[in-house]
Amino acid sequence: MTHFEVPWSFYFQVHQDTKMVKLHLSEYFQNKEGLSNRYYVLSYDDVTNYLHKYDHRKLNYFFERNMKETFDMLIRIKNFNKKKGYIKTHALCYIKDDVMHCLSIDYLDVINAKKKLDQLVLDHEVHIDINYQIPMMYHTDIKLEALKEHLFHLMHREYTI
């Protein structure tokens, strides 16, 4: 069996009532972006500044739909190191008790893993995993198995760069 690990970028929680976001960066993303902190709490104003305006609307949309299953969405956040540009990520999410939990993976990492997967899927049994070390504060909150299953379905979609 071939084993794939897809590196995650960050985990975030959005509270429906306050619209505050708790953001926990992976070590991979922290090093890639050259950031000093791994944990941030963003106010509503910060969220509107860091998220692309359409992606900010997506958060409200999924709360309004009262989603019960896992879902995914593309999220663009402002580049931390540059004045312009966005980092495109694919967020695997679910909503529990008026809190949206999302694990974001860099869009290009998803595409690269999909290319490798497509080369092997005809000949081998393949297992996909998220390279994820769960912070202690989220142990009871995150439904990692459901997110892994959703990632597997996401990998079978058509992608263009």
Topology (SSEs and partners):
Layout lengths: L1 E6 L2 E6 L5 E5 L1 H7 L5 E4 L1 H7 L2 H13 L5 E8 L7 E11 L2 E8 H14 L5 E6 L12 H12 L6
Short description:
This protein is α+β, with helices and mostly antiparallel strands.
Low confidence ranges: none
| First-last Cα distance | 28 Å
What average pLDDT do the residues reach?
80
Order of helix and strand elements from N to C terminus: EEEHEHHEEEHEH
- Tell me, what's the shape? globular
Helix content: 25-40%
What's the β-strand tally?
8
Tally of separate helices? 5
Number of domains: 1
Q: What's the CATH topology label?
A: Beta-Lactamase
Largest sheet: 6 strands, antiparallel
**Strands side by side in the biggest sheet:** 4-3-2-7-6-5
State the fourth-level CATH superfamily. PAS domain
Radius of gyration over alpha carbons? 16 Å
